[in-house]
Each structure stands twice: as C-alpha cells, then as structure tokens.
Design goal:
The protein has about 200 residues and is an alpha+beta fold. The protein folds into two domains: about 70 residues, no CATH class; about 110 residues, no CATH class. About 30% of the residues lie in helices and about 20% in strands.
C-alpha cells in the first residue's frame, strides 16, 4: 500500500512534500509502482518507512517547506467546534461567538481542544475570518443562527474608500493567542492561523 497525492512525491527514504495541502488516496496493487494524478506521474514505494529528519520543526512545517518527512502530516480542517461536547459546554458558558473568538484565554482553550483529543500535526487558532472587520471600524455581529451580520456592508468602491486604517490594537488577541499556543505545543504541532 502507498499513498497517492497530487502535491507530494513518495520515495524509498520517506515522504517528499511539495506543498502544505496534501490530498491522500490509497493505491492498492495493479499500478506497477507508478500512479498518475492530474496528468502527473509519481513513483510509489513498496512500504512506508520512517525517515529521519534533521529538523526540529513540527512535521507540518517540514512538509510545507518541502523536506522529506516520515509520514504525511495531518491537521483538521474543522478544528474545534460543535462536534465536540467540551466545546458545546464552553459555548453554553460563553454564548457570544465574538467573545469566544476575540478573548485570548478562550481562543487558546478552544484551539487546544482538538489537539488534546486527537493530536493532529497542526493546531488551528480558533478565530473567524471576519475578525479583522471591527479593526477597520466595520460593525460586525455573529448571530448563532444567522451567522455573520454586517450592519453596513461594503458594496462599492466608495465603501472601500470610507474604511478606516486598520487599528491593530483591536486585534491584540490574535498575536497573544499565537504566542501562548506556541508555548503550549512547543515543536509538537504547527500553529496555523488565517487572520
């Protein structure tokens, strides 16, 4: 058995990743050691073998850099959330999504929930992609049922021009959370963010 992916190449000494985003599929017999994906051919190896890495960086960082890694890294796209009882309990205590996603202690606690449960190779900071809007003076609320509510949506070039310069002090929780998360999982997992 070997793994097929359009963005990594496997070799006899381990995995050589060419990208952070790896899609894995299992290949079983009948392929004569070669398989194709999106018009690319990759040579598979007979059995997965661990390889040593001189880097002390987390596995996901090594793979993103293109280093050979002992196995494909795993991280969870869904990260923390309603599928976890521990998250639901915390959400009952802190019903505001903005409070949960903009309070450093809560961000760290929620971000670590899936890591503590599953130990993936990446820990995703609990956040929302719209979190920077208030730092641009764009009023934002996140309704538990409706989702994001922007009172004054930007619908024109004039709306863009009316934005205030970003006030980074209003996003202090992002940097603080990343710093604490790095301390909580030193070298064991990559810390991933999107804000």
């Amino acid at each position: 058995m070997s793994f097929s992916c359009s963005t990594s190449v496997s070799c006899a000494h381990g995995w050589k990743s060419l990208s952070l985003f790896v899609q894995l599929g299992v290949v079983r017999g009948g392929h004569n050691g070669v398989f194709a994906s999106r018009n690319r051919k990759f040579t598979s190896f007979k059995s997965p073998r661990a390889c040593s890495s001189s880097s002390s960086d987390p596995l996901l960082v090594q793979a993103a850099r293109g280093d050979r890694v002992r196995r494909p890294p795993v991280w969870m796209m869904r990260r923390a959330g309603r599928y976890m009882a521990i998250y639901r309990k915390l959400a009952e205590k802190h019903p505001s999504f903005r409070e949960r996603s903009e309070t450093t202690d809560l961000i760290v606690e929620i971000s670590l929930q899936p890591w503590e449960a599953f130990h993936p190779d990446g820990v995703i900071i609990f956040s929302d992609i719209l979190s920077p809007l208030p730092a641009f003076s764009v009023p934002l609320d996140i309704d538990e049922v409706m989702g994001p509510v922007i009172q004054s949506p930007i619908c024109s070039e004039d709306g863009l021009k009316a934005l205030h310069p970003i006030d980074l002090d209003k996003l202090h929780f992002v940097g603080e959370s990343l710093r604490i998360l790095r301390q909580e999982v030193p070298g064991e997992a990559a810390i991933l963010g999107f804000v």
